[in-house]
């Protein structure tokens, strides 16, 4: 096979190409432009009926992932994983890249190495699980579970024709291996299958059947773009080998793929055609979506300079891609019952770029992002109600970055000094929701059914709600005001009446938490202190004191009348309130 017959190996990162975003054109632009004339929502009526059960609340947000596998087991990484372990009764699924990549284990942004596979002097394979053990130990010990991304090609399995990938060596690119040769198909599929089986056996021996039975086993990452430098058919065959190898060791393992980008519909269709024809094991189907790919990707200008064009994420773009790929799965009746795993589901890409690369990444520091995330999770749940294929996980591809400045603006839960960004509070708020979804709506909510009528535009301003009920009678509701345009500010708060019915208790304690510019927001405190990059101990203490999910007002008693009560909210743009009605004994 000639290089021309294989997928082009010379796809490179440029100012117009972002990792994680496919190259096909879609109905949506690469990012949402700012519109200063867009109308505001200044009043809303929200209704909640705690007596109307809409089924189990799928906790689709309980999943994270990241490139930097070697930061999993640092002290900071372990601490952050522990925070997620505390936010779920079952634990989050954690999906790190690069477990099979060869290297020393030195961590840098957008790279990592598990360094598992090796050949001895006689060409015989052997395995070193030293780094992989540290990674998986940290995840399991924090109460979470592994989504095992089986990737990428170890250096000793890179085919000879990978030499065609020409690179200029640099301080962090030691050879063409680091530059992307790891994306070529393994030269020996049998050796790859043995590696997969050995990896699965080692995990079974180390963590036990009960733990490993909770894991997901996924082949590769985004093979429809430069992460795979072979043909689609070569990938499909590799899946057959991989799934068989996992099941050889773990007969009940959940295996799947192919983790395509949001524009990978044709690749996904070919993959499912192959697995269907071959009767390969397939327990989930995975794909990705990104809400924006700012252009230019990186601005080479003065430090802290403005963006050349004001751009924002688009929730519509993400929902459209999720629906499109879900409907590809729907084309195969035998796969209607399989869960869709959106194991990169992010407002922007790439994770390691920041406000210093393009000022549009500022939203990743502010209250905009947690409110966006709450909105997105609810809209995906609404999409589940309209579609045959159900999204089971919507993964935030976020962790933390060593060596960054305070509020660098990367897509991360922590910034320098271990300070929590407001984004983490979205997950604290979502964690407070109960087991059952209940009826709730707003007269100014933007429905997912409008996807076909939005003509590629981003989601307009809205007030919407997601509500739940727990077995003990506690009712929790998230009520937000948001617009995709991060630059569309409003000095006027929206008057929101929350009307709740179906309360069967005699009395409740109402707790009110808030994420906005002045609550649950360490970034605002840091900025108010002059944005110090060397904060004093007192300044750092003041910043960290405001990083968690904060009460907006003191808890107070509520006595329903005929099972009904009302709450008046005043919501700035953007903001989200968490209202919790706890039955009094």
Automatic annotation (TrEMBL):
Give a yes or no for keyword Phosphoprotein in this entry.
Answer: no
Annotated ranges, domain Glycosyl hydrolases family 39 N-terminal catalytic:
116-544
Q: Which domain of life is it from?
A: Bacteria
Give the EC number(s) listed in the UniProt record: 3.2.1.37
**Pfam families, per this entry?**
Glyco_hydro_39
Membrane-crossing residues?
none
Keywords from the UniProt entry: Glycosidase, Hydrolase
Family annotation (SUPFAM superfamilies): (Trans)glycosidases (SSF51445), Glycosyl hydrolase domain (SSF51011)
Output one GO MF annotation: xylan 1,4-beta-xylosidase activity
Q: Where is this region: Disordered?
A: 1-39
Q: Per the similarity annotation, which family is this?
A: Belongs to the glycosyl hydrolase 39 family.
Q: What is this protein called?
A: Beta-xylosidase
**Organism, as annotated:** Occultella aeris
């Amino acid at each position: 096979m000639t290089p021309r017959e294989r997928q082009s190996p010379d796809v490179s990162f440029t100012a117009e190409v972002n990792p994680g975003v496919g190259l096909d054109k879609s109905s949506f632009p690469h990012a949402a432009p700012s519109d200063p004339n867009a109308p505001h929502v200044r009043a809303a009526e929200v209704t909640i009926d705690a007596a109307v059960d809409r089924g189990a609340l799928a906790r689709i947000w309980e999943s994270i992932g990241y490139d930097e596998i070697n930061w999993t087991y640092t002290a900071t990484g372990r601490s952050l994983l522990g925070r997620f372990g505390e936010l779920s009764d079952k634990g989050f699924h954690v999906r790190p890249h690069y477990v099979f990549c060869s290297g020393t284990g030195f961590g840098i942004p957008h790279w990592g190495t598990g360094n598992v596979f090796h050949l001895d002097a006689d060409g015989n394979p052997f395995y070193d699980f030293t780094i992989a053990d540290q990674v998986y130990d940290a995840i399991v010990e924090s109460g979470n579970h592994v989504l095992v991304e089986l990737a990428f090609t170890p250096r000793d399995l890179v085919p000879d024709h990978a030499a065609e990938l020409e690179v200029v060596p640099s301080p962090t690119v030691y050879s063409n291996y680091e530059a992307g040769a790891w994306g070529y198909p393994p030269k020996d599929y049998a050796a790859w299958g043995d590696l997969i089986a050995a990896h699965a056996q080692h995990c079974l021996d180390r963590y036990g059947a009960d733990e490993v039975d909770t894991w997901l086993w996924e082949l590769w990452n985004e093979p429809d773009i430069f992460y795979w430098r072979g043909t689609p058919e070569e990938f499909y065959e590799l899946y057959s080998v991989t799934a068989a190898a996992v099941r050889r060791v773990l007969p009940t393992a959940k295996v799947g793929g192919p983790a395509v980008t949001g524009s990978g519909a044709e690749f996904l269709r070919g993959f499912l055609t192959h697995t269907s024809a071959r009767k390969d094991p397939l327990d989930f189907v995975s794909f990705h979506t990104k809400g924006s790919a700012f252009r230019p990707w990186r601005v080479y200008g003065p430090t802290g300079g403005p963006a050349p064009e004001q751009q924002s994420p688009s929730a519509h773009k993400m929902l459209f891609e999720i629906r499109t790929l879900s409907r590809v799965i729907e084309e195969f009746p035998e796969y209607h019952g399989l869960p869709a795993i959106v194991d990169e589901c992010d407002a922007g890409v790439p994770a390691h770029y920041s406000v210093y690369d393009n000022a549009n990444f500022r939203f990743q520091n502010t209250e905009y992002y947690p409110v966006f995330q709450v909105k997105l999770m609810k809209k995906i749940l609404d999409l589940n109600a309209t579609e045959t294929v159900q999204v089971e996980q919507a993964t935030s591809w976020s962790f933390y970055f060593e060596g960054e400045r305070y509020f660098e603006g990367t897509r991360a839960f922590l910034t320098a000094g271990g300070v929590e960004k407001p984004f983490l509070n979205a997950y604290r708020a979502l964690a407070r929701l109960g087991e059952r979804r209940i009826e709730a709506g707003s007269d100014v909510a933007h429905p997912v059914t409008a996807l076909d009528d939005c003509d590629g535009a981003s989601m307009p301003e809205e007030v919407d709600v997601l509500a739940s009920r727990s077995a003990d009678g506690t009712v929790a509701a998230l009520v937000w005001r948001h617009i995709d345009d991060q630059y569309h500010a409003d000095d006027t708060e929206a008057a929101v009446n929350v009307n709740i019915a179906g309360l069967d208790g005699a009395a409740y304690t109402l707790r009110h938490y808030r994420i906005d510019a002045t609550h649950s927001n360490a970034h605002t405190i840091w900025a108010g202190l002059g944005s110090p990059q060397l904060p004093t101990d007192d300044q750092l203490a003041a910043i960290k004191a405001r990083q968690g999910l904060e009460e907006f007002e003191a808890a107070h008693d509520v006595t329903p009348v005929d099972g009904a009560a009302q709450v008046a909210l005043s919501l700035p743009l953007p903001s989200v309130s968490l209202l919790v009605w706890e039955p009094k004994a």
